[in-house]
Amino acid sequence: MRYQQLITHVTELIKSYNPIILTPDSHCEQYIQENCKKLFDTEIMFLKQVFSGVQRYEEFLKILTKIMFTLLSSTTNRNDATLYQIFSYLILFRLDELPYNEFKKMVNEQDPVKMNVLLQFLFDIDKIITHVKPQWIEIYDPQYIQETVIGGLEQHFPMMKDLLSSLSSRATGKQSELVQEDERPESATKKQPTKTMPFKLSETKKKPDPPPPPKPEQYKSKPVPGNLNKKTLQQIEEDNKLRFEQSKKKVQETYKDAKQFEFKTDLRPTNYETVKKEVEDTLNQQLQFNMKIAKPAPVDLETAEIKLNAAAILREEMLLKKKQEIEKERVKNLEVNLRDSGEFEEWKKQQEEQEQIARMEHQQQKKIEMELAREAAMRAQEEKFKENRILAEKMKVEAEERLKERQELQQEQVAYKKQLIEQIMEADKKVYLQVEKVQEKNKQIAEDQKLEMARLLELKRQEDEQIRIKREELIKQIRELERQPIKRTKGYDPTETMGYGLLEEMSLAELRDRLEIVKAERKAEEEDKRKEIVTQKDEYLSSMQRKVQEIKAHRQAESQQKDMEREAKRMKKQKEEDLKKKIREEQLLQVQNKISNKKQIKSAEEQRIAAEVRETKLRQQYMNANKAMVEMKAWKSQQDGLEREIKNRQNEKLIVQEGVESVNLRERKILAEQAKRLVKAKVDFNQAYDNDLKTAYQMNDQLHLEEAENRTQMHNIQREWKEEHTKNMITRDEYKQKISEVSLKNSKKKQQITKQDFSRQLEQLPSAQYS
């Protein structure tokens, strides 16, 4: 079947359908009559069923494609929505009726990237349940969706693994993630090393085991000095400072009586101090950055008049009109409703101010609570630090135990891996025979491909020769047609019409006259238009001047109003700052009082605890009188408890040891049986391999004998053909044969003569020269 052609017909059939014009059946029949005359009955039935199925489940499939486009927007194209709907319908509803091989061919003929995206999304059950199922349930029964649709996908997934992996490798060059996830648990449960089966060949001698590595010498550290922990860091710093002062004083005393060297230049008069003072004064003057401005900014400045362009004038006029309309609307409401919204706005401002004050008080209160919480957090942090220190000590002990266990496990793994490496290295040495077999097989395949390629090239050459012959015939026919005489036409008259019988048909002279009339009419229209434009410009300029005057008056009034509003806003801001300052001072006083109260309570609690500790110490001193008797009884009870604990531990260890020995015995039995099975399987494999190798050698010898016989037979055939060919040539042309025989005789005679002449010349030469 031509699946690519069928899918294209189905997509065109769905895209060209318009439910307003035709019914589905009539549209399908019309399309088949126009475009599908060469299709078989089964293919036409496929078109009808897929078209009707897609129309029936249109909402269902649109939900699926819409979610796929949103989740996979980078790898999908919305122009392929019809293609995705067709294959989604076939997979979800008709896959049981389609044979798997036919469906696989249908998918492989499409673009692998598009089909990979669709199939990976459809068979990802988690995505379908989380994203698509909630919207499907809105239009279909939940039980139908779960059992029929999603259950069908889960049922067909094992069959589609091969197709999914092949599409993924063609589209992305990687294996499908769905197939890897499905196969991962089985590999995790059967995680065993690969068992190699060695060939039955001569084994190499094992190398001697390397000597054991020398034991590392244990480093014995020196004991800690006794005076290390007696001093604190503060005491050490104080000692260093004292030592520094003593050394400083000692140096000063040694050089106290030393005479300083005097220079004669120091006795000369100099103005160094005055020059130094002048330079410092100039530098200080340059570095005075906080000086006042020389010229203060002018206060009363005349406002400069801004020249407006046409766009600015129109923009200002539009704003002015909007403000005037708002004012008119307000006056109209006042006339109709007999009330103004000014009082409401004033009340609204007062309420907002009160809310602002309450908000500020709430913020200050939150700051107080945060300060108190900070102190509580600091105390909790100290307690947590103590708990963490105790917990860290416990974790260190546990970590040391785990480290010992891990080291033992690593040693076992290293020994096992060494044994496995030795087995693999022995197996790698015996692989070369299989490599030779594969190379011979590849050579045979290459020879077959060469023969097939030569045959195809010969067919292509014959086809090209036929095409060339047809092309030469066509060129001859075209040249014959070009040699025929061309019919000449008569001269052209501009006053005559062409005589084609068209409406408004005229000659060239009449056309030119009409063109001149049209040009004159257009010139008159242009003059009228120019006059109209001049009048419009004058009106526009006058209106612009009037608008500028209105804008100036409006701006002046608005600037006065803005100045008043600015002053009111400044006063309001000053009041708010004073109020904030007052609230902040009150809240700070409250915070200070609360903190001081908490400190007093804490100090009283500490004093109470200290008094209780002193009382308990006194009680312990009174109770130490009978301490000897109490210690004797406690020692006896401890000894009895230790004996009981030792007996219990001994019994428990005996029970555990018995269980371990029984488990070890069972394991040894299982390992012995497994070793027997491995040995038996190895012997069977070696026997089967020897038999296969023997038959392969026999077949190879037989092939060599047949090849030698074929070569001798071909050589004999070649020699017989050559002899027969020479006989035929002699009988066909005896004259040429005689000429060739005569020429051979003459050449032999000439050769003998040249040899004799050369030998004579050698004899005539002197013996010394010859030697």
TrEMBL record:
UniProt KW Coiled coil keyword: yes
Coiled-coil portions: 363-419, 446-484, 508-652
Polar residues bias: start-end ranges: 753-771
Residue ranges, annotated region (Disordered): 171-228, 742-771
InterPro entries attached to this UniProt entry: CFAP99
Keywords: Coiled coil
Protein name in the entry: Cilia- and flagella-associated protein 99
Organism: Paramecium primaurelia
Source species taxonomy: Eukaryota, Sar, Alveolata, Ciliophora, Intramacronucleata
